[in-house]
Amino acid sequence: MRTIEDLNASGKRVLVRVDLNAPIKDGQVTDDTRLVAALPTVKELIGQGAKVILMSHRGRPKGVGFEEEFSLAPVAKRLSELLGQDVILAEDVTGPSAKELASSLEDGQVLLLENVRFDAREKKNSPDMAAELASLADVYVNDAFGTAHRAHASTAGIADVLPAYAGYLMQKEVDTLTSMLDAPKRPFVAVLGGSKVSDKIKVIDALLDKADVLIIGGAMCFTFLLSEGKPVGKSLVEEDWVDRAHDMIKKAKSKGVKLLLPVDVVVAKEISEDASTSAVSVDDIPSDQMGLDIGPETADIYADAIKKAASVFWNGPMGVFEMAPFAEGTRKVAEAIADNADADTIIGGGDSVAAVNAFGVADKMTFISTGGGASMELVQGEALPGVEALKDQVI
Q1: Ramachandran bin of 186, using left for φ above 0, alpha for ψ from -120 to 50, beta for the remaining angles
Q2: Of the listed 13, 34, 117, 210, which one is catalytic?
Q3: Is 386 designated active site?
Q4: Which of 52, 303, 314, 324 sits in a 20 to 30 Å window from 119, CA-based?
Q5: Interhelix angle for 351-358 vs 328-339, to 10°?
Q6: Is 373 a catalytic residue?
Q7: Which one from 196, 202, 255, 258 is the annotated catalytic residue?
Q8: Is residue 34 annotated as part of the catalytic site, yes or no?
Q9: 392 has a pLDDT exceeding 70
Q10: Are 317 and 355 in contact (CB under 8 A)?
Q11: Which listed residue (167, 193, 349, 350) is catalytic?
């Protein structure tokens, strides 16, 4: 890929796809992680004297025009504070406001287009929309790794129209994740959680070819446990994936990969903050209860495996960590990864990022990916349209 380091942006209008999909409450950004991640590229372009035009999506609007609920106005305000200068907000994406403001930008100024998903053509990777976006600028930079797995007008189509470069974040995400998979320090421990085996099966399959130890937690562990003949009570199970889970267990054994499943779990009759819980062996899960976290013995086993690792990749919580009764397993895994100061520790986006932030250990991780879905697709060997579009431009 051509990167921002190959770009002389002085005096140019540079259209930058960033991922500013931040949570908003009462008109305020409540987590600016993604905004902060975009700063190095934006600041570099400002420093070079570029006219910077940012574009991003937020949420899932209907694609029929402006929707205040999904406006980027609060993002523009917070980004202005982070940059220490005004970020001008266009009223539209490629309409009169965007065109007028883009044409009147001065060197070093920053313009933010409104939510690109207000235009239904974005998700359709419309050549017309890509051309309209391209008409605003001279050069394109993609720094939105979190959307690199989407072939949209602002992530892929536009690279067919303008000279395209990877921003610092895009470059770091791709380099870090691929190097971890290609040549990890060993022992390499992969920790996977989340709800569904079906969402992670390709990742599990790929990591069984790379990892020395594979740790399984979250609700998806019950599909694995059922494949081993364990009782699962009312726990979430994907019946159609039981045989596939069993195949993964057999694959791990054939490859000499240590696949760890829970030996005990925290169960309750309901998912609530005041639920009555107990820790039980996976051989004794009551028929009227559901598993909602790994148990204390399992957490200790997982923490011990993580302690011995030289590389750790983590994606997915161990339980319903947002609620105190089911948070301890995820907390112990997060703290174990944080405490292994000698290891390369990579957090693969999604809820795992929320977990390390919630437990105050984010600053102890080697690298935190901004892309949940994109991270997973890269790990499982999928081509990312946003990355491939940049590769196509290598000269």
Answers
A1: beta
A2: 34
A3: no
A4: 52
A5: 80
A6: yes
A7: 196
A8: yes
A9: no
A10: yes
A11: 350
